[in-house]
Write a structure and sequence with these properties.
single chain; 293 residues; 5-stranded antiparallel beta sheet; 3 helices; 12% helix
Length: 293
């Protein structure tokens, strides 16, 4: 259920966080190397590393968006928080996700973007590995759930964002009518309050094209492309403290419109420096949706 408020259906959860609104945590920026990086989602061939890039762990200030002077907006900073309870009972039930959650996500994506059509095209379940395991790129475990992804990245590039439209909409007449579209990610915890490994997002207004590094992602049957991110002091990072399963963060991953809106919102998981002793490993679902305006 999406909670409607007086301001554009947006529900700003301005409750106090467990700290002063700012934390400093380690985050992984890519180290420029001059060669195109590549990551594998499956066991790579002998002698080939899972990741070819090297990363620079930097201490980054991450602001609690719940304590911001004004609520972040999808079209401005590139992300919003919604009070959008789900009726899904078991997120490990693939059929329930596809039959129930996909429809909920379409409704949320339309409400958040103001678009006229929404197409859900994939989702991924994640669970934080043991806290003594360093965050990496989110390798999938034997149970099918991926680990939390600690590499700063954006799911789509200029090229793969354009390619995704043709993959999602295959009707030639419908495709010809598309003028503007975007890809949004809907992220929510699926069990318990998130205390240990929140998701940080970078204000899209502080990201420049020169910061973005195209990276190949190898799947068993195809090669995708994402952006990794070079460090820049101008980047402004935020997170929503203590996110609960009834909340969902919607953030922009690609927009075909070049001006006047957010286009890319880099993001990554980070280990909160003040994790309570009782905190359970974060479990979450992320879902990608293409919307047409």
């Amino acid at each position: 259920m999406i909670v409607q408020t007086e301001q554009n259906l947006y529900q700003f959860q301005g409750k106090p966080s467990s700290d002063d609104g700012l934390v400093v945590a380690s985050m992984s920026y890519v180290i420029p190397s001059g060669t195109r990086p590549c990551s594998y989602t499956f066991q790579p061939p002998p002698g080939i590393p899972w990741e070819s890039a090297d990363y620079d762990l930097r201490s980054i200030s991450i602001h609690d968006a719940r304590q911001a002077d004004s609520a972040p907006q999808l079209e401005r900073e590139g992300f919003e928080l919604w009070d959008a309870a789900t009726s899904v009972k078991d997120f490990l039930n693939l059929e329930e996700i596809r039959s129930v959650y996909y429809q909920e996500a379409r409704e949320l994506a339309l409400a958040a973007t103001g678009a006229r059509k929404a197409y859900v095209f994939d989702h991924l379940l994640r669970k934080r590995e043991a806290t003594n395991t360093p965050l990496s790129f989110g390798k999938r475990a034997a149970n099918g759930m991926a680990a939390a992804n600690g590499r700063i990245h954006n799911d789509y590039t200029e090229a793969s964002g354009k390619k995704r439209l043709d993959l999602v909409i295959q009707d030639v007449e419908e495709l010809a009518q598309v003028r503007r579209y975007s890809i949004v990610n809907i992220w929510r915890p699926i069990r318990n309050t998130v205390l240990d490994t929140p998701l940080a997002v970078c204000d899209a207004r502080t990201v420049e094209q020169k910061d973005l590094v195209s990276c190949d992602v190898r799947y068993p049957n195809r090669t995708g492309e994402i952006y990794l991110v070079n460090f820049a002091a101008r980047h402004h990072w935020s997170y929503f403290s203590r996110m609960e399963p009834h909340e969902a963060m919607v953030f922009k991953q690609y927009d075909s419109q070049f001006n006047g809106c957010s286009r890319f919102t880099p993001h990554a998981a980070f280990d909160h420096p003040h994790i309570p002793a009782h905190a359970r490993p974060r479990e979450s679902i992320e879902l990608r949706c293409l919307v047409i305006y």
